[in-house]
Target: Type II secretion system protein GspF domain-containing protein
Amino acid sequence: MKFSYTALNKGNTVKGKYEAENEQKLIEYLRGKGMTVLSVTIKKASAIASYQATFSRVSFNDVVDFTRKIAMMLNAGLTIVDALEILKKQTDKPSLMTLIIQIDTDVRAGASLSTALKKHKNAFNNLYISLIKAGEASGKLDEIMLKLADNLDKERSFKGKIRGALVYPALVVFAMFIVMFVMVTFVIPQLLNLYKDFNIDLPITTVILMAVSNFFQKTWPLLIIGVVGLSLLFKRYLATKTGKKSFDLFLLKLPIISNVIRMSALVDSTRTLSILIASGVSILDGLSIVTETTDNVVYQEAFQNVYTDVEKGSPIGKALEDTGVFPPILVQMASVGEQTGNLDDTLSRISKYFEMESELAVKAMTTLIEPAILLVLGAFVGFLVMSVITPIYNLTSSFK
Model:
């Protein structure tokens, strides 16, 4: 909330504006600065500011930038309170400003940074909070914040590569379906109506196209409603545990996409576990956190099984092998890393390998998708040409 205040500072009356969780927090903050509070009023936000505060949210990019800036300032010798104070002056986004103010208020009240972050799990996941907690316990918060910032940067870069590789094919496919729908529903029927007045035999392709066009022309509003309804039902089905697992299993059986999904899950999990172990987090706690790093239910359940086996005393390599999900190279490297006591370094190396493999998988997928799109588009255009042009040829032949 934004407040306007009037206070005495060393005998002088000062007025100012400040954001705080509530009025009491503001008064405590001003008293901590040696001021005597005279009055506090809530500052009403403009309509635009209210809209921004309501509908904007803290994005993953905001978290990455927040972490990098905090890490740099802590590494330069500033305290966490000073770092948060500087960030408040540099931030323009309302949702991020509110987040920083709430964290700053909790830290000034005596809470640790990890405790303050726990209140905002929509922005900071368990991995993030666990690493901050480990840094506070070891007294190396600045070093771990730098590692965390590097990891988030890598994650952002990796996701950006995959997203960038898939955006173009997705847009082409979407545009292709829209054009096909418009052509079949509104354009083709006007052309085919010309043949109704002539007593000629229409080829089978034209008959099929006329039947499809008539169907789409009469029912297109219902078709759109049906597609939207099925999409909503499918979304609700995916929200269930059974639906999500069935869909994830289906994706892992697809010939091209499955490799991208596997490599992406392995990159995130191995890199995350490496950083956790290097930061002093136990293997069991690390496995518990890694379970939540992937959205794929198959890998979530696999890591839960690994956690259970390791908890019972099984070596991590054996536990990974028993799931039947993880590739042999990860099983072997994890076993070697555990035996040599360099599990964190070994996992870091294997995560780089999986990252390279995932990039190759994405390139292979896009290389195959583009010709497939052109093939489907060419077949559709060829079918239209045959259906529309052939009757015209038959008609001119009959006149001769």
Observations:
- The chain has three domains: 2-44, 58-124, 138-400.
- The chain is about 75% helix and 5% strand.
